Amino acid sequence: KNEVEQSPQNLTAQEGEFITINCSYSVGISALHWLQQHPGGGIVSLFMLSSGKKKHGRLIATINIQEKHSSLHITASHPRDSAVYICAVYPGGGADGLTFGKGTHLIIQP
Amino acid sequence: SQTIHQWPATLVQPVGSPLSLECTVEGTSNPNLYWYRQAAGRGLQLLFYSVGIGQISSEVPQNLSASRPQDRQFILSSKKLLLSDSGFYLCAWSRQHKAEAFFGQGTRLTVV
User: Fold this and answer.
1) Contact: B43, A4; criterion CB under 8 Å
2) Which of A87, A101, B28, B77 has the most C-beta neighbours closer than 10 Å?
3) Do A100 and B36 touch (CB under 8 A)?
4) Among residues A54, A56, A43, which one has the least CA distance to residue A83?
5) Could you give the CA distance from residue A98 to residue A88 in angstroms, rounded to a whole number?
6) pLDDT tens digits in sequence order for chain B, 112 residues long
7) Which of A100, A102, A104, A105 to mutate to test the interface with B (most CBs of B within 10 A)?
8) What is the dihedral of CA A9, A11, A17, A23, to 10 degrees?
C-alpha cells in the first residue's frame, strides 16, 4: 500500500509570498494529482502529472519519479488561494482508485 | 462534456437512522466509480469502487455498503448510522485504466 506524506500540514503566509507544498510517496506510481479543497468541501483538480513540470497561471507542479516526490508551488500568493491542497497518487493498471495525502491547510493573510 | 452529480451536499442524521447518498455521472459510459471518505483530521480513504453494474469492491470493513444499479449511478448506504460514520463523503469517476479522475462536490455527513 502506498504511503503518501504531505508537508507542511499547516502553512500561514503573507500575501505575495512564494508557497511550496511537498508530497512524497513510498511506491512507484503512474500519475499524481494535486487537488484543491475549499471550506465548503468541494474538490477541484489542479494538476495531473506523470513526469516533469506543469504550469497553470500562478500554480506550478513538479514531480521527480525517481525520488518519489512532487511539489506544488504558488507564486504571488493571494488570500483566495487559502484552501486545503491535497496530493493523490494513482498506481496504474487496475481500478484501485487514488491514495490521498492528508492535505496541507494553507492560509494566505492579506 | 462529462459531469458528476452528488447529493445532498450536507446531511445531519441521528444515530441508528439509515443513509443513502447518490452519485450519478453524465456524458460517459462504463466509468469506474469510487466512494471515498474523509474523517476528521484524516486524508480521503477509498471505501468502495466499481468497474461495472453490480460489481462492487470494498477496501475497508465498515458499517456501509455500496450498490451500482445502473451504469452511471453509484449509491452509498447504511442501515443504521454510527457516530463514527460522520465525515466528508466524496464520489469520483475515472475512465477504465486511466489516471485522470473527476470528483463530485461531496457530502458532509454529521451523525448526532
Assistant:
1) yes
2) A87
3) yes
4) A43
5) 6
6) 778 999 899 999 999 999 999 999 999 999 999 999 998 888 899 999 999 999 999 887 678 999 999 999 999 999 999 999 999 999 999 988 788 889 998 999 999 9
7) A100
8) 0
